[in-house]
Amino acid sequence: MNDLTVVIPAYNEEQALERFLPELLEFCRTNGCKLIIVNDGSRDGTKELLSRFTDPDFFVAIHHKVNRGYGGAIKTGIHATTTPYVITIDADGQHRLEDVAALYAVMRKNDAELVIGNRKKYKESLYRRTGKALIRCIAGLLMPISIHDLNSGMKIYHTDLARQYMQMCPDDMAFSNIISLIFINKRHLVLEHPITVVARTTGRSTIGIKTAFDTILELFHIAMMFDPMRILFPPALFFMLFSAVWGIPILLRGEGVSVGTLFLFVTGLICFFLGLLAEQLALIRTTMLSQAPCKEPPRDS
After folding, report:
1. DSSP strand E in 46-173: where?
2. CA angle 41-171-199, nearest 5°?
3. DSSP states of 110-138 as a string?
4. Predicted TM-score of the model (pTM)
5. pLDDT digits (tens, 9 = 90+) for 23-48
């Protein structure tokens, strides 16, 4: 696996890394893969801990002076990657290193562009399951998807594609969902493979209600970028049909076209033409993003 880099975003995960890092370093050394850990402005002793293990041959630690968010840390790690493939895993030690090799094998065997670790067997709280189901339902309404675990933290990418598409992704926790949807929308081969997730032993998850709202908002942004008519055509059709249902009986009674009918019909036309305009703007924007060189995110060290 000498063509693979493991990227780990870390924020205040000193205790978890202290237990997890020696095993991870041995895994990378044995399998010939590189390791990049992005310390995202941690306030604990993460920076000092990483400095004790840094090995220029295969392990690099990058430190942000301030917290830039989960997605921002991953962007820094992906941009620093020099291998054809990059896999992201969490710093809390919940991911098994055996699954890194398994996802890599699936990637190479199927020549996929993205392979997502499916945590379907992992027992989550009702609160988390409900939130994930809601996000997936909304994503399914906005664009066709066949992936179950969009926001899994363990994903392996073609580095060049990840570097290109990450410019469209937010810097917060919504990064995981959005980059998966971009790969799907761009018609790349995206696969899932079951992984095992162990229970967190230290710290606590930073995912909450705000993360869910941010993700839903970003879903609409991505849908408007790639397929705006999918959002704007249904209301356009609704208003036009409603204007017909409302206005035809009045017209048949010989009372002419009512103000309400005109209002509903014009509203439908506005939605329709806004959709057409948004389609053109989205095409221009995505074309410009795909052709623009990837800008390196600022690195503090």
Report:
1. 59-64, 85-88, 114-118, 155-158
2. 70
3. HT-SEEEEE-TTS---HHHHHHHHHHHHH
4. 0.75
5. 999 999 999 999 999 999 999 889 99
